[in-house]
Amino acid sequence: MLKKGDFIELKFVGRIAESGEVFDTNIEEEAEKAGLQKPSQPSRICIGEGMIIKGLDEALEGIEEEQEHEILLRPRDAFGERNSSLVKTISLSAFVKKGMTPVRGELVSFDGIVARIAAISGARVIVDFNHPLAGKVIIYRIRAKKIEDVKEKLAALASFYLATQIKTENIKIEGKKAILEVEKLPAPQVISTLKQKTTQLLDVELELQVKEEEKAINKQEK
After folding, report:
1. Domain count, the chain
2. What is the Cα–Cα distance from 206 to 197, expressed in whole angstroms?
């Protein structure tokens, strides 16, 4: 039975309850059937660490591993309720200044925030900043498998906090110490958080080192 703090490899299919439309999956065959982009890697997470949406994270506690489960999530536990205050009217000229041509129904990044063009009326554009799945009841079909290897656990944790895929070959475990080789050091706050989480969840001390080949390249550039 899975519990908070367990590291798992999670396979899932997410669909909208009302329509049955699959909106996300990390299973290649399911992605192909739904016309979605081929997943690049399996999802490896630590339960209870907020690495996935809250409702699904909480639902993982107490389920049996290596078995298929179906989880129904109400909007508040999935992508949130719709908020009418997040529907804004923006002048067409604001888009033009950014070199953008709004098209109804399209998703755009406006001032760094993803939004949907809800309507266009003359010189006004109605922009919806709600999550595209806000207000939707979501169903996830999942299967989870525990991760036991410390390197794989650290790779999952580091991939999340560094926002890039970390491979186990870049990790060395020496007793209670782990060395992670990276191309460049992240911000100090990120390093601090990752080190803290590594000690808390894996009971090892983490050290980050820049790869030797990257050091050589940086030296040549200087």
Report:
1. 3
2. 9
Q: Which of 17-21, 39-43, 92-96, 141-145 has the lowest mean pLDDT?
A: 39-43
Q: Are residues 142 and 45 in the same domain?
A: yes
Is there a single domain that holds both residue 76 and residue 34? yes
Q: Give the pairing type, strands 7-16 and 43-46.
A: antiparallel
Q: For residues 72 and 6, state if they share a domain.
A: yes
> Model confidence over 35-59: pLDDT tens digits?
998 886 679 999 999 999 999 999 9
Cα 125 from Cα 122, distance rounded (Å): 8
pLDDT in tens, 131-143: 999 999 999 999 9
Same domain? For 144 and 154 the reply is no
The residue range of the domain holding 179 is 149-222
- 179 and 113, same structural domain? no
Q: 45: exposed, middle or buried (C-beta count within 10 Å: 0-12, 13-18, 19+)?
A: buried
What burial class does residue 14 get, using C-beta atoms within 10 Å of its C-beta: 0-12 exposed, 13-18 middle, 19+ buried?
Answer: buried
